[in-house]
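[Meeting: bench + compute handoff]

Bench side (C.D.) handed over the final construct sequence. Compute side (W.E.) agreed to return the predicted structure before the next meeting so the bench team could plan truncations. Sequence as handed over:
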Amino acid sequence: MKEILKPEEVEKEPAGLAARHGFKIGGAIGEWQMPNEAYKEMIRSHFNSLTATNELKAYSLLDQSASRLNPDGMPAVNYTKADEILQFARENRIAVRGHVLVWDYDMTDWFFRAGYDSEGEYVDADTMKTRLQYYIEEVIGHFEEKFPGVIYCWDVVNEAVADGSADFESGDEKHTRKTRDGKRNPFYYNIGKDYVESAFLYARNAVEKLKVKNPEMDIKLFYNDYNEFHSEKRDAICRLVESINSYAQDEQGNNRKLCDGVGMQGYIGGFGFQEGCMDPKDIKRIETAIKKYASLGVEVHITEMAVRNYQPDEAAVEKHADFYAELFKMLTSINSGAEKPLTCVAIWGLCDYPNMPENSYGYRMNGPFSGLFDENYKEKSAYHKVCEVLAE
């Protein structure tokens, strides 16, 4: 039996403080930040959960050349960059959110074609299901075998629910994104309407096989999405989770719980502009969404939080800190009873980036002054107010 990693129970802030309330506090790291010792020190000093921003996604892991040469016809995976991040996490006893097994955005098209050829014909649905099952089992198995216990959960499917009801597939309570920015969702069109449910079934089977080898392992499976506290999308996600958890039955005919939790990405505020940022109504919407997801009998993670702020003036910075404090007051109150549905808050808008170009995706997505830390990785007033709330 392999030793399972158990993150150190140390009183580092804010992770140690948040543990008293029943949830982890996480940060994010990408390949480009790995040489940055100051950034890594910030991660190891403050957080007990970590997410790789891109390196565990399929388009980062899949190797086209090796897939073409694979004698068994299954996809080949290159783990070099991902393993570096997992090694850093293991060395510092930080648990990792696996992000993400299935995501249509920027997915490599050749994965769905004959011979893994970019110009080949698309293969049939049965072939794609075999490939997807193999890929999910291979990836979950690799990290658990090489880094036992480091990955404590996987986002199995990311962003499968569309923003507008016109894009929903409304049969049997399934609400699956068919297109994005005019591009067809390759999983939907090459596997079928139930690709989300199928992915969760493959992931659950993979985890259960590994658990036979090592009963101490405990990997939770999550559905992850953005705009998840907007009422229409929130309700569609709830229907999708219900569909996932009624998709497969055990030998006694009982529904198998394939999905353990919902990941709420948690980008809060105007997208690229100050108007709409730090609106107290958003805190109430997030609270309502967490409670609604928890009512389905699943855990809730906030997976990619960025409390957006686009202005550096003192008034905006203090308003940002006060908003962060009120947000964490709500999050701790949700976990104040015996039931603690919120089990992780992962923050992706960690640091300020004052020189970020206004036309960049990062500027719109996170905001240049949204961090708990400044551009030099020093704690801001928002950081201290969050810690004060967690210490109460």
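W.E. noted at the follow-up: The first helix runs from residue 15 to 19. C.D. will use this when planning the next construct.
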